[in-house]
Specification:
Elements lengths: L1 H29 L3 H4 L2 H13 L3 H13 L7 H21 L3 H18 L4 H18 L2 H20 L3 H17 L6 H10 L7 H17 L3 H14 L8 H17 L3 H18 L2 H17 L3 H97 L25 H8 L7 H15 L2 H4 L6 H8 L3 H12 L3 H18 L1 H4 L4 H7 L5 H12 L3 H12 L3
Helix pairs in contact: 1-16, 3-4, 3-5, 4-5, 4-16, 5-6, 5-7, 6-7, 7-8, 7-9, 8-9, 9-11, 11-12, 12-13, 13-14, 14-15, 15-16, 18-20, 18-21, 20-21
Amino acid sequence: MKLIYRFVRHALVAMLIAFSLISEASVKSWQMNRWTEMSSRQLLVKEKAYEQAMMPDSAIICCRIVSNRYDKGMDHNSKFLCLKAYVQATKLYFLVYQDYGKALESINAAREIMRESHIKEPYVDMYSGGIFSTVAKVDNDASYWGEAMKAYKRGFESAIRMNDGEVLDLIFTNMLILAKDTHCLAEMPRYWKQYLKFKRTRRSVFFDYNKLLYMALELVSQRQFAAGIRLFKQQIKLLQPVSKRHARLAVQAYSNAMECYAATGEYESAMAMSKYIKGIADLYRLHDVELDLAKAMSKYSAALGEMELSKQYLLRYYEIKDSVLNLQNLKAVVSTDLRLQLRDIDREMAHVKQRNMLQSLLTIVIAIIATCIAGFMYVLYRKNRKLKEKNVLLYEQYQILLREEHPKESTSSYTDLGEEETCTSGMQPVSCGNRRYKSSKLTEAEKDAILSKVLTSLATPEIIQDPNLSLGSVASLIGSKPRHVSQVINERCNRNFKSLVNEYKIREICMRMSDWNRYGHLTIEAIASEMGFKSRSNFAVTFRKFTGLNPSEYQKIAREKSGMK
């Protein structure tokens, strides 16, 4: 029992230490920045708000926090949110920072999630196509054009299977523009038929725009420039007033019309279209559009014979090019600072994961310890319950003995530890006694008389309380010889004198422990001391020998039986 109690005590200490560690980890988590405490869904909503407010740094940080939470063991919805974060990061790196390396890195991470989790996301293929298309323009490498078209086609098929009309419109727009630039419009009729057959819940501006774009490009490929211009103007009208969301679509429509005018030699009309493009580019800071536009306007001015104006536009082209280079240098500096912020976030997220793992481990350990403690407590409860039932039974049995005037003869083997000679050799005291008292002349009647007087005297509290009580004093009190008294006690009670006295003392102590009115103010030790017990340990051993209970257990049961608390 002591070992069990010691284990429970140590287990409770271990639990307290574990709880303190968890509390410390929780405090550290609360000290983290607010954005790390937000859910992935909340962060993606916040990222969208930052993007619309033209705060790309904050937007990319939100994406990074969510994407860093990715773990193969997380649920499907959480994986999808991580995938979305990578897609949004790709969009920012691609369209805002023009960091195509980072954009490709993010889109590949998104593709890895798709492959591992069997999640379909057409935007991944759309941005992959956009990255390859841009790289193809910069490096003038035809192989990248093919990779871009493959990515668009995969996204197109995926969007149809997922019944996602919004991304289907965006992908088909990019497919048409890429097909025009690479002179591959002959491949488009098959996809055009699938696009028309796609069932939509509602008609969108993008669908109407793509429908006009496809028909216009078909006409332009047949050199029907006038008919194509009319359709391009319908596109422009469809997008009025031009919003940020439709800015690049409007620029594409104006650019297509401008090229058609230039192809037919109508450079004044081409210049008019270019001014609209410039207004949209200035409004929405489309610097890449301004660069190509200045070069085209210089070319058209020269064709009109306005050489001075052509030089001005050409000078503007070089100024924009220089500013773009300076802007790229500035972005490189800003990007370095941003990378440092992202690195700090990565470290903090790694620490969060470690703390979460520690908390999970400690929780498991605490659960195991709690289970063990609960098991031990249950075992202890069962044992204590059985022990209590046993103690109550012993108490009740002893109460029956107390109600008798004198104790019955014992069947236990006792030896004379004091005044009489000791019986050894492992034989029963009665037999030994018969040999010892073989020469005794006491008759059975005399023995009965002596025993009666001894028991009567020992039943008197004043006598057994006497500290000088001995075999000789009792023999003198009843008018007999010590040897005769010892003989009678050994033969009739099957014990020695000291044991018989102790039994009467214990009987008296038990009666006093049950008499709350007279002795309730005394402690167990005080009552035992009155009966002549000087040693607490000796008293406890003697008490248990006759009652089977500890003094405190006996007193507790006596209190319960008497209705006292």
